[in-house]
C-alpha cells in the first residue's frame, strides 16, 4: 500500500492495483482465417431412445432455428413428410431428441441436443412443426420444499457441488461434470424447482469466491462450467446485413454533485465539502445540482473520488445494439466480440481504455432455411461483465478487511 498526504494534512493509504479495462488486444493476439458465408454444413439427427435406429433428418427439414437468451436453450424445426398422405413415413413423438452437428474447417462439432414438444401437423401439406427445449427445462417443472441444513452427520454444512449432487440424485438426473466448490453454507431452504435450488447454491459460491458459473445440459447430463472468456473473438465488419444502435441516458441528468462528509469521529470530526462537475456537461444540460452526504470519509481526496464516481454514473450513456449477420453457430450468450463502426461512441480509440469496439452479447438467435441461407441475430452491450465482477470482488474484499480491522480494534479495547 502506498501512502500520500491530502490537503487536510492527514495521511491515507492508496491501493496500488485497481480494476481496469482488460487489454483484450493482448489476450486475442493470433489472427485466424476469416469466416465466410457458406462455410458451415449442418446435420440434424432424430434420437428416439432405446435401441431404435437414429434417423438423419437432413432430407426432411425445411428450416430450423435455436435461441440462446436464457439458461434453457430453445428452438424450433419444420419438417416435411416424404409422403404427405402417410403419417408413418415420418414419425416425430413428444420426448424424442434432435441433435444438431455443424461442420467447419473439415471437422464436425456438436452444437446442441434438445427434446421435442408435442408436434403440430398439417395433414394436407404434410408438414410437421416442433418446438424444441433443452433438458434443463425438466428441472424447472418439479416444485417441492428443499432443505439442506448443518447436522451432526454433516457438521461442516453443504457446498454447492454437494447440493447439486443430492438434487440430481432425487430428480434422477445424471451429472456430467461439476467444478470444485470451496465455500460451505449452514442452511439452504426454499420452496421451488430443482433448478432454483441449484442456482441458489452456486449463487452462494459466486458471492463468496467471485467466480461466475454457467449451468447447462449436454447430452442429457447436467454440467456446471466456470464462466470464461471465449477462446475466439469474432470481428464484425463489412459482412453485417443489418444493425440497430441505441443510446439511453436521462433527459436531464445531474450535472453537479455537492458532496459533504466528515473526517474522524466524535466531537473532533472535521467537516469537508467538495463540488464535483464537468464544464462540458454543465454547458450542454445546464446547472442541475444534487447534494449528497457521504458520512465518514478517510480524507478530502476520498470524498472527491466518491463524488466523481457518482457523477460519472449519473451522466453515463448506456449503449446497446442489435446486429444481423451471416451465421456464426459458435456464438453464445455473454461472449465478447468486436464491432467495427464509425458511429460516435462505438469507434476505436488511441488506446485500449478508449477503445469501444469490444461488445458483449446479451441474446443470440440462429435461423437456417431450407435454401441454405443461414443468419445470426444477436443483441450486445458495451459493459464488460468480467470487469464488473472484478470491481465487485475488490469492493467486497475492501469491506471484509474493514470489518476485520473493526473487530480487532474492538478486541484490543
Per DSSP E runs of 2 or more residues, the count of β-strands stands at 26
- The residue-averaged pLDDT reads 83
| CA radius of gyration | 27 Å
Q: In DSSP terms, counting alpha (H) and pi (I) runs of 4 or more, how many helices? A: 7
Helix content: 10-25%
**Percent of residues in β-strands:** 35-45%
What best-fitting shape do the alpha-carbon axes yield? globular
In short:
It is built from seven helices and 26 strands. It is of the alpha+beta class.
Folded structure, characterized:
The chain is an alpha+beta fold. The longest helix is centred in the last third of the chain and has 28 residues. The two termini are 26 Å apart.
Break the fold down into its secondary structure elements and pairings.
Elements: E1 2-5, E2 11-14, H1 24-27, E3 41-47, E4 55-56, E5 61-68, E6 74-80, E7 97-104, E8 107-116, E9 120-122, E10 127-133, H2 138-141, E11 143-149, E12 158-159, H3 160-171, E13 174-177, E14 184-185, E15 187-193, H4 194-209, E16 213-218, E17 221-226, E18 234-236, E19 242-248, E20 256-263, E21 270-277, H5 279-285, E22 289-297, H6 300-315, E23 318-326, E24 336-339, E25 358-369, E26 374-381, H7 385-412
Parallel strand pairs: 13-17, 18-24, 20-22
Antiparallel strand pairs: 1-2, 3-4, 3-7, 5-6, 5-25, 6-10, 7-8, 8-10, 9-10, 11-15, 12-14, 16-17, 19-23, 20-21, 23-26, 24-25, 25-26
Helix pairs in contact: 3-4
Structural features:
21% helix; 26 strands; three-stranded mixed beta sheet; 14-stranded mixed beta sheet; disordered N terminus; 413 residues; alpha+beta
